[in-house]
Every structure is written in structure tokens, then in C-alpha cells.
Amino acid sequence: MLIIKESRELNSFLSLFELTGLKVSFVPTMGALHQGHLALIRRANQSGGLVVCSIFVNPTQFNKAEDLEKYPVQTQSDIDLLKANGCDVVFLPEKEEIYPNGTEYNLPFDPEHLDEIMEGKFRPGHFKGVAQVVHRLLELVQPQELIMGEKDFQQVAVIRKMISDLELGIELITCRTVREKDGLAMSSRNQLLEARYREKAKVIYQSMVECSQNLKSLKPSEAIYLALEQIESAGLKPEYFELVDPLSLLSISDEQIKGPIQACVAAWAGDIRLIDNMQVRH
Ligand code: AMP
What we know:
The protein is an alpha/beta fold and 282 residues long. The chain has helices at 7-18, 35-46, 65-69, 75-84, 95-98, 118-122, 126-141, 153-165, 195-200, 203-214, 220-233; strands spanning 2-4, 24-29, 50-55, 89-91, 145-149, 171-175, 237-244, 261-269, 272-281. It binds adenosine monophosphate.
């Protein structure tokens, strides 16, 4: 596995690789890798071309300085995991490589309503930061395929819109959320959870499973009320529990008695913010 830090070096390597005519499949990450990330690497491998993974903790997507400061960094063990899981190139850029002209947002892309709901509402500027870094990484890696996790459901919707609005011509492939045994979605942030909150955090998954049952007899607004109550009585602080259309991400009204519904949740477990989602009606 190649370890590349400079975009110039990445560019020379990719120009040579292009001669093979094979695809480049790209998995962007912020490191502190776990089985969720490795599932994306394995999916990238199935395409039979070059598997490139980037590790870059992107400052522009953190709306709170302390969240960025405490984000776990474990580069050497990440490299070992990537090597063992069939990654071909790991790209470890410095901030200057990603933002040579500063971090000001100047992409001709607007996430529009996606920036005003759920994660967009509670983390102002987050999705512009995500769009900015993914756009820059795509410019440097020039992949045919971009592989992302459904764990970050709204992020996928933003990147799908960016690829379409800017006509980037890249295939977006999504992978299912990988969970711990008790249902908690794997996340780099889980390792920051205090033990007592780690135990309680499974309620996020349980609330979505129960919501799916409740929707068989209750209205969406009633199912939301119960889910929020369930999360709160387990000792977490829910920020939102929304039921949305999986494509538009618009809220489901009580009158919509048919069609797919995605539950999207954000909750604080102590001072760690967790997000998750699940399809609760098919
Ligand atoms: P991150 O390092 O958190 O920026 O995540 C990098 C990629 O891994 C994103 O596309 C995430 O959606 C994906 N990812 C994170 N956690 C999981 C998980 N538990 N299952 C599947 N994909 C995940």
C-alpha cells in the first residue's frame, strides 16, 4: 500500500495508473477507522480497480472548535487496518494541500433546503464544509466511484446533489450502516463515550426499531413523540428525531399513510453527539 502525503505525488501516480484503464474507487474518511469504514474499503475493492482512501480531519465541517480538538487521531493503526483490508493508496494530506487558497467557501454549490433541516439546522455551516472538502478531494483523486456510508444519511444526500448540480459525472455508491452487537452504529466518536453513556447509547437504535413497529398503528407525529420520550428516559438528550422521505428528506406528514420513511436521529450522550438513521417504513 502506498502512503502519499502530497497532491503532486498523488497526481504523478494517478497519471501512470490511468494507463491501465481501470477504475479509481475512492473512500474519503476522517480516520479513527472502524469496521464501518472498512466495509466501504471492501466495497471499493469489489470494483476491481484502484482503491484510494483519504484520511483528513476537515476543520471546515466542525462548527465547534472543541469538537475538532477532541476528534480522535490514530494514523498508524489506521494505516495498518487499511493495509490489511485491501486499500491500495492512502492519501494523508496536510491542510495546505486541501486549502491552498484558504478555507473560505467559494464552491458554486448550495445545499439549499438540506442545509436548513436536521444536521444542517443544528450544525450551521457543516454541509458546506463537507461539500468543500469532498469536492477538493474529488479534484485531487479524480475517481470514477465515490463510496460513502448510509450512516451519514443527510451527508449522502448533500453529496448526491453536489455531484448532480455540478455535473461531476462520478458514481456515488452507498453502503449500509455497520453496527455494534447492541445496535449502536459504529462511529469514530463512540470511543469518546464515557462507559455509562456507551451502555445507554443503544437506545438510539432501539428507538428506531420501536418506531418502525409503532408506525403500523400510530401517526408519524405520535411515533416521533414516543421515540423522543424513549431516548430521553434512557438518559440521552435527543436533539431531533425526524421522519422524512428518504429521497427528498422532507418531513412526513400524518396524512402520508403510504411510502417509505427514514427515521433520522441526533442525540447527546453526555458531551458526545451521536447520529443515526434507519428505514422505518418500506
Ligand atoms: P468519517 O470518517 O466519519 O467522515 O466517515 C467516513 C465514511 O465512513 C463516511 O462515508 C461515513 O458515512 C462512513 N461511515 C462511518 N461510520 C459508518 C458505519 N458505522 N457504517 C458504514 N459506514 C460508516
